[in-house]
């Protein structure tokens, strides 16, 4: 997992650097959290507290934003986050089976991370590629026309 | 230049991981090697539906699909098909279901197609500003800055009758006028590229295929309303769109088409990109503003509307991507030209996305006023496997529900409400008769439950209860009371939810309760699912 984050001065230095990048921006909280999430894989508590202190924004607001958006994680996640679409256009083309197959292949349930820390499985709304439904996203890459065989092929790519 | 043949290579989020870009390069190289560059053009295209394996190649005007194409196939296709005019039967795509030969019924461009907002998509390299300029790009901006006053621009847009394409269909010119008239030194232009409505992906294709058209349109809007800053709010799910936009913005700045003193006119305007973080409600305009301001994407109370009090409390015009893409052609060709397309009260074209149980899933731009029958059965190739049509959801879950007897209603913002439906974002989700209505309605309800922001009770709790009741019905625990309760809940939510999300959430439910009354009754009274989808104990068969 990307979870092994140690809290020390170096961590805060890294956090501060990201915050300083937005010095000229009005209300950059969300941008900062997005960058931190990209850097650490998720938003650990001490990092959120540091942001609150440095920006002078109440911790409750920082937490509020961190928990609102589905692309921001407040718990450690796997190296690859799989987001499977289950909105209606995907649903009528077999998204339920896709989710079933993924659960079986990975041996985990929705919201869980595989023991080797490689994959986290999340079920989500439309990814905007409904023309190739059923679809999923792994980190920033989108895959469509999913079938059992194709899912296995794709997972193999990431397991290498 | 006129070409005798076009080679369309599928380059999509789906085919790129399978080597589509390499296939495209191989075609270009092989065509060049054979001295065919003057005669044959290689273009990119999107997916054509799940029946055709990726990556595929279509050759026009012969209408032949090769799929899936492997690198070693390319020299053969070029030599045999493009040079000698002989179709390589062995590599040709055969429809698995019919055993027949896969052929696009349509020619290129499709007969009913009318490209205004997609005028450049598939024809230019989106990462090259010169390609855009070569096709009249930034001409409209030059015209505006050199010969029009802000009010002239607003008048032209008003006269065109352009209605916003984000879903609600509000007149764009009027919105610009409100923002222009609102007092305030600082104003903003915001492009809504959040596009979260299930079944909709038109904005993504415009952004990926023609990012400069949005930059040009936003700059024109800035000039018209008196803004010098713009934001494009793009959903996190679209990394490709973000990459193309970033490149385009930098190029426009280099060419002096964005930034300080544009084209020496004294007018300055610049654009920043803000990335969403996965929340459908952020497409709602005031939630979007809160999100750009770095907070939770919860909607604000209206009024005041954004043209009065928008981003950081300043007057702000918010427009959808497709709306903006219409602006440069309107400025260049005039309002009259635009009014001649589509219907008199709803002019222009509409990009429809065809999804669900349809043979050719994908997108198509056609004049407003086209019918569902044309869209589904002529352009979309009908429903796979010879199944019947159960319903079409237009404009995603927040839009309208259309049943087979409404197939000939002209599709426009002002016609569909007469049939208790709505055009919305232009998404069409086709659902065939193998699906159970309880399951379909539950799928819509789950979407709203997942996406409710939680700010108000009717939506936060209402969606949860709707899903629970539907689950009970599926398990055979529903009663007549359940249906009464569903209806009451839905009507309550419509009346009391804080924003458009909660107000629209019960739409598919309420409409389907009415239209598919018998099927619901079969579930709760007969404890049976007529389609055989729900896990009901088959105690007895429902008899009418
Ligand atoms: C829940 C909800 C989600 C919305 N999502 C979008 C969206 O993804 N894209 C969009 O352009 N408009 C969306 N809208 C509509 C916007 O609030 C707004 O009307 C639109 O951006 C105005 O642009 P237009 O006048 O160019 O259509 C949404 C509205 C609601 C209530
Ligand atoms: S209706 Fe739903 S999305 Fe809108 S404010 Fe209420 S809880 Fe949030
Ligand atoms: S519905 Fe699944 S990607 Fe749009």
Mean pLDDT of chain A: 92
What is the tally of beta strands of chain A?
A: 4
Intertermini distance of chain A:
16 Å
Question: Which kinds of small molecule does this entry bind, naming each only once?
Answer: flavin mononucleotide, iron/sulfur cluster, FE2/S2 (inorganic) cluster
Order of helices and strands of chain A: HHHHEHHEEEH
Structural class of chain A: alpha+beta
The value of Rg of chain A in angstroms is: 18 Å
Low-confidence segments of chain A, given as residue ranges, are none
Beta-strand residue percentage of chain A: 5-15%
Organism (chain A): Thermatribacter velox
Keywords (chain A): 2Fe-2S, Iron, Iron-sulfur, Metal-binding, Oxidoreductase
Pfam families (chain A): 2Fe-2S_thioredx (PF01257)
EC number (chain A): 1.6.5.9
What does the model show?
The complex is a heterodimer of chains A (160) and B (544). In chain A, 46% of the residues lie in helices and 11% in strands. Chain A has helices spanning 9-20, 29-40, 45-55, 59-68, 88-91, 95-106, 148-159, and strands at 80-85, 119-124, 136-138, 141-143. In chain A, strands 2-1-3-4 form a 4-stranded mixed β-sheet, with helices on one face. Chain A starts with 8 loop residues before the first helix and ends with a helix. The mean pLDDT of chain A is 92. Chain B is built from 20 helices and 15 strands. Chain B has a 5-stranded mixed β-sheet, with helices on both faces. In chain B, strands 2-1-3-4 form a 4-stranded mixed β-sheet, covered by helices on one side. Chain B has helices at 20-33, 74-83, 129-134, 139-147, 150-160, 172-181, 202-209, 211-225, 239-254, 285-292, 321-325, 327-333, 335-339, 372-379, 437-451, 457-474, 480-496, 500-504, 507-515, 517-524; strands at 5-10, 40-45, 57-60, 64-66, 188-193, 229-234, 270-275, 316-320, 342-343, 346-347, 349-356, 362-367, 389-394, 400-402, 427-432. Chain B is of the alpha/beta class. Classes of the chains: A alpha+beta (160), B alpha/beta (544). Flavin mononucleotide binds at residues 164-168, 170, 172, 192, 194-197, 281, 283-285, 318-320, 323, 499-501 of chain B. Chain A: Keywords: 2Fe-2S, Iron, Iron-sulfur, Metal-binding, Oxidoreductase.
């Amino acid at each position: 997992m990307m979870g092994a984050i140690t809290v020390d001065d170096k961590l805060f230095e890294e956090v501060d650097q990201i915050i300083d990048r937005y010095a000229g921006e009005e209300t950059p909280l969300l941008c900062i959290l997005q960058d931190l999430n990209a850097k650490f894989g998720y938003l650990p508590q001490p990092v959120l507290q540091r942001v609150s202190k440095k920006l002078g924004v109440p911790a409750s607001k920082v937490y509020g934003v961190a928990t609102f958006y589905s692309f921001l994680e407040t718990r450690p996640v796997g190296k690859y986050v799989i987001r499977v679409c289950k909105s209606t256009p995907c649903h009528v083309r077999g998204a339920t089976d896709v989710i079933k197959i993924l659960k079986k292949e990975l041996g985990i349930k929705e919201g869980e991370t595989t023991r080797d820390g490689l994959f986290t499985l999340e079920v989500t709304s439309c990814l905007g590629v409904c023309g190739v439904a059923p679809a999923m996203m792994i980190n920033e890459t989108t895959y469509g026309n999913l079938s059992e065989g194709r899912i296995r092929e794709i997972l193999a790519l990431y397991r290498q | 230049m006129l070409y005798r043949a076009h080679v369309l290579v599928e380059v999509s989020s789906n085919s790129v991981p399978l080597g589509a870009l390499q296939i495209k390069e191989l075609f270009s190289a092989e065509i060049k090697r054979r001295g065919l560059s003057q005669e044959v053009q290689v273009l990119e295209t999107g997916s054509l539906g799940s029946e055709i394996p990726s990556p595929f190649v279509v050759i026009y005007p012969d209408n032949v699909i090769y799929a899936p194409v492997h690198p070693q196939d390319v020299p053969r296709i070029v030599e045999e098909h493009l040079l000698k005019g002989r179709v390589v039967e062995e590599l040709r795509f055969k429809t698995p279901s019919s055993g027949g030969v896969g052929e696009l019924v349509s020619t290129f461009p499709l007969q009913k197609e009318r490209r205004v907002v997609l005028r450049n998509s598939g024809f230019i390299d989106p990462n090259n500003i010169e390609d855009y300029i070569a096709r009249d790009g930034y001409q409209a901006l030059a015209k505006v800055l050199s010969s029009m006053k802000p009010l002239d621009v607003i008048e032209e847009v008003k006269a065109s009758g352009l209605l916003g394409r984000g879903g609600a269909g509000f007149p764009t010119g009027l919105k610009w006028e409100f923002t222009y008239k609102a007092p305030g030194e600082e104003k903003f232009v915001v492009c809504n590229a959040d596009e979260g409505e299930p079944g909709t992906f038109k904005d993504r294709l415009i952004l990926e295929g023609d990012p400069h058209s949005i930059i040009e349109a936003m700059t024109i809007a800035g000039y018209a309303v008196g803004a010098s800053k713009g934001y494009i709010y793009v959903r996190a799910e679209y990394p490709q769109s973000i990459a193309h936009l970033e490149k385009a913005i930098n190029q426009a700045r280099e060419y002096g088409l964005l930034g300080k003193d544009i084209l020496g006119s004294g007018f300055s305007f610049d654009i920043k990109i803000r990335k969403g973080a996965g929340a459908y409600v952020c497409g709602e305009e005031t939630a979007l503003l809160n999100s750009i301001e770095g907070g939770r994407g919860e909607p604000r109370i209206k009024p005041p509307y954004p043209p009065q009090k928008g981003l950081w409390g300043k007057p702000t015009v918010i427009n959808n991507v497709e709306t903006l893409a219409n602006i440069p052609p309107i400025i260049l060709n005039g309002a009259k030209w635009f009014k001649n397309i589509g219907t008199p009260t709803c002019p222009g074209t509409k990009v429809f996305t065809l999804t669900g149980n349809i043979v050719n899933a994908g997108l198509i731009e056609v004049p407003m006023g086209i019918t569902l029958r044309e869209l589904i059965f002529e352009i979309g190739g009908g429903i796979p496997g010879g199944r019947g049509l159960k319903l079409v959801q237009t404009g995603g879950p927040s839009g309208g529900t259309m049943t087979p007897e409404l197939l000939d209603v002209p599709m426009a913002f002002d016609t569909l409400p007469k049939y208790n439906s709505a055009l919305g974002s232009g998404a069409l989700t086709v659902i065939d008769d193998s699906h159970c209505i309880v399951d379909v309605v539950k799928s819509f309800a789950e979407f709203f439950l997942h996406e409710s922001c939680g700010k108000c009770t009717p939506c936060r709790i209402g969606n949860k209860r709707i899903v629970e009741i539907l689950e009970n019905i599926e398990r055979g625990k529903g009663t007549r009371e359940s249906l009464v309760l569903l209806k009451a809940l839905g009507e309550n939510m419509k009346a009391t939810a804080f924003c458009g999300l909660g107000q629209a959430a019960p739409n598919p439910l309420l409409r389907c309760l009415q239209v598919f009354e018998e099927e619901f009754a079969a579930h709760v009274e007969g404890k049976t699912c007529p389609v055989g989808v729900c896990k009901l104990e088959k105690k007895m068969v429902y008899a009418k």
